[in-house]
Amino acid sequence: MAEDYGSDFITIVDEDGSEFELEILSTMEYNGESYVAVIPAGDDEDAELEVSILKNVDDNGELILEAIEDEDELETVYNLMMDQLYEEDAEEDEE
Question: What is the rounded CA–CA span in Å between residue 25 and residue 78?
Answer without folding.
Answer: 12
